[in-house]
Amino acid sequence: MHSTYNIQHLASTHRMSSREYIEILDSDSDPESEPQHIKRQKMVHPNPSNTARAPYAASEAAASLASRNTSLKGRKRFIADLDDLKTACDQGFVAHGLVLQSVRAGDDEGTFETMIKTSSGEHVLNLNIMLSDTADYPKSHNCFSYSSDSNVAENIQSVIERIMSLPSRPIAETMDRVLANLTKAMSTGSIESEPEDESAPEDEDEGDTEEDYIDDDFYTSSHSQKQIQMSRLHRHFLEMVARDYHPGLIRFGGDEFCISVSLSVIQLAETVPPRALNAWDRRLLSKTQHLVLLISGFRGMYPPSESDDTKLTFHVGLSGVYKPSKEQAKEACRNFGLIGHDAEDMLRLAKEKAAAEAALMYDDVDEFEPEVQEKEEKEEEEVPDRFDKFSLSGSLDSLMNHQFVKLVNMRRKYGLGWAGAELLYSEVERNQKSEEDVLACTLERIHIEDEAEREMIRNGTTILPDDPIHKMGNNDQINWPLTAFCYLIRRLTLCTRYCIVCHNKLETDYVALKPYVCNSKLCSYQYYSLNHGPSLEYEIIHNPETVDLLVSITHSAAAENVLDEPLPIGMGLRVPLPDATKVRAAPPNTIVVGVPIMNQAAAPTNSPPPQAQNRPVIGPDGLCDFDELDPQQMRASVMELLDSLPPIMDMKKHLEQNIKPGKSKPKLHETPVAENVVPAAWKLLRWCVGSCTAYLEEISSEEEKIVNVDNSWKQYRFSVGAPDAEAKFKAAVEESKAKDSNARKYPSLYAFHGSPLRNWHSIIRNGLWFKTISHGRAYGHGVYLAKDANVSMSTYASGARAPCWRNSKICPTNCAALVELVNLPSEFVSFTPHFVVDKTHWLVVRYLLVKSSSKADKDKQGKEASSGPRAMQRTPFVRLDPAHPLTLGHAPIQIPEPTHQLEMILRTRRAEAEAEAARSKPDIEDKTVFEYDESLDQSIKGWSAKGKGRADDPMTIDGDGFGGDEMDIDDDVPYQYAASNHRPLASSGSSRMAPDHQRQLEFTPQIVKRRPADDWVHDPEYVRAAISRLMPPPEMSTPGGTMAVQKELKALLKEQRSCNNFKELGWYMPEEFMGDNLFQWIVELHSFDETLPIAQDLKAKKLNSLIFEIRFPPDYPLSPPFFRIITPRFLPFAHGGGGHVTAGGSICMDLLTASGWLPSYNIASVLLQIKLAISNPDPKPARLAHNWNTPYGVLEALEGYRRAATTHNWIIPAGLEKLVR
Fold it and tell me: pTM above 0.70?
């Protein structure tokens, strides 16, 4: 048996009897292949066998060591405990008849090595322990383990594997438990009867309670008194809606619940580049769905108490609707599933193996292909309210659960931004010092990080979400769901700048298209061995030829001795000693036609391991550590491991085998005729795919292929570089248009870049850089590009000198890229005979061309060539600059618009999202929150009881359906209102009130509420002058609409009167201008951030506010109200203005159209959203026009609204013209 830690035998060594082992699903990769960590499920059903067992008890020595450093936590506690364990071992640590010796710290943080012997001195085991995160030690960390010994006995190996499932305890107790299990395994041959750990000692301040275990009745409340403050939840939901997020409440039964916050992926694509979303996970844009954050752990209370803040748990995934079903959410919050094999699984594997062996009898393997994919697809059911993980779910879950709450607390305590708090957190964890000590040393760096993020936002290439806790006071209540979702969107947007495992910022000059890991060996181990990276199984099933290409290119680079960074080090690979003579000598510096063949890969971030001084240690099984090999041996080992793998199509067939419900999915290492493949080969395959930070997808549609390129060349969509590379390129194109008239007509050029096959392993991962100068350059320093494809595809893209990967289906021999570049050749380093460009942000790689030597591919291409002319072209071609023609030989090349396919996908997703939004309505649980009326009559009764007011003082707005409701002013200061008689509205359909109702909305406060001296003050004369020429209010109404508007008015006035600071509220409804028509309101927006240009303009013109008119449709709230600015006039967008204000003064937001409106929205949240939109400086800040004092007309507002809706394909509400005419 292979000596390294291997979890794949866990199911066979553990019997699911009185205890069960649960697999945590933190990635969308095959959950059975290599799970991240195992937790125990404490069973509530009595088991007679358990009562007969003696509970496990730690030895006296272990218990003493574990109790020494209880005042410490995290890394400090681990270091102190490890030092104590070293000292104890030096003095003789004996427990359960075994001796623990030679404990020493490993090379990476959180690792240590030890040796275990019998009391007579016989060797038992060399053991390596690795903690998942010392920050979680000793309460919620996980231990990974393996042995460097060879030929470990099966019973000893089962003990090593069981370490992962042990509860999180101090390392002294963990090692004591390991010794106990070893003693049992050596004496009985098994540890199946190991008792439950029911008496584990507790630390002073962090002992495990029964809440640390996951009971069957997981959602049964442990609190006797539960309370959800519906008023707070109502307010928080509205704040989320105001930012275009979709909140949801999901009750699990009893007091337990979770909150979901979601955003449709197509809306996410407006801030995150679609090319990046597609590269991160093709499923994100494959259909209409929502990015969902599930938040649980409230323990029946909302908002959570300060002590419960850190107990919140977060789960990130995708759902076809705005929130998953209760069953899906409950399962996601449980986050585990059983694993196991049975005899039926073994029989299935045996049949597969026999079929594969039979296939070897055929000369052409392609003739023996069972059609299994169609069966698999038929079994897939479309469940809209599912909660599915995607490639980044595991990393985002870890980030949110381990760091988010701590970052919020740091921000509030020290007044930092997100970037500064992340740096502070990272330094605290790295140095294990107090926050204050680290802050004193790194304050300048922290401020630089925060300022760099603000500058990035100002540049406009990266759009980050709103920051809900910016300038929030220490005593202000946090909207936890909103803050968490905003932080999630921020980190998703910036995910390529951070390590996907440890979440620290990457210290590299190059930003990749896909998220990756830092240089830590521990991160590399978790990324590849524990499936924190992209799903290899998904890529094999859906993109087998891309996987084949990546493996073939890696094999070529290794065979020709140029495979450099990145190398698969730090992954714990145990490999056979390779034959280094199989690797060819590196090619000499060759000059062809005066231009060097250059490897234009990025400069390596790390040098390869130095050449070993001694021969690697070889175990009896013939395996050695990959990291101990010299670079040439590493390349030879990569070749041999890849050659041992079966063909990718065989893996695909195996993974697509039909399985019965409840059975484990097929695993890669169970692929037929792969029993002789060492585990390191499967990890290397995962590395070949996971280390590729570019986007590659074979083009199968003929109309999307480049015209006049020989069919022997396969064509791939190819995208490499930072997620914002497209935005930077477009900005450079716009700059070129301003400089050059020809660039205005032909904004970009196209050219080819060729390089030998061996170089593409590096180019695909790092892009076209030229920092490493491997050869001379005849025409200057830069990326070399040819206008004639023959130069790149034959001269430069020279064929491989070594044999191709023997199991490759496509057998690539040559590679070339087609690159789009800014059309400013006069500013190139050289433009004849070749383009030489030194500004890499002026280049965007669009296509990869791969020549195949496969016989099957040649036959297929021959059939395609003889099939006749190209079908009708629906994809538009790029307009090429005739001054720089692009040719292949003498034939002109036509290029389909490279972004057309993605734009069509986005257009389809938008249409689907609009249709889904029109159908989607809040369910009963969410309606309860949205429609919650904050106990209007309860505080009135409170006043009467306290003698502060009388029950007949408050005003009733209307008797039609609201006769018993009273206006709730939730203050310590009472108000008294003028009484009036109330009658129902006239039944003629008019919204106009009878004359004696004209004064019913006039209030005379008895006591004025005290407000800050610098608070905003309403100016009645300013408003009166603005509304003097308003058109008559709308005439049509319905009883339902009247009731809804009355309720909305009541809520708005209540919030206005109860606020302590108008400046913080940001809007004001002047009560003296409420006329005799409920369906026409006047509202002011004021107190904008003083740093905004619009605020400075208002101050310069001595304007007190923006004055809005709101007109309600008769069927409100089914249709949205119409908002327009009366005065002042804004600078139109066409003249450099912004703020989402149309040229006619209406508001350009889908929220106010039939496409985006929901009946659950209220006017207060809409006003907040409008103010945020006006305050948004992207793409341009709002400014006042030179004729700012010319009021907008209602008809020009209507026209502006219609133009905006037409431009964005928004649906205009029915009857809008009648509303404003």
Answer: no
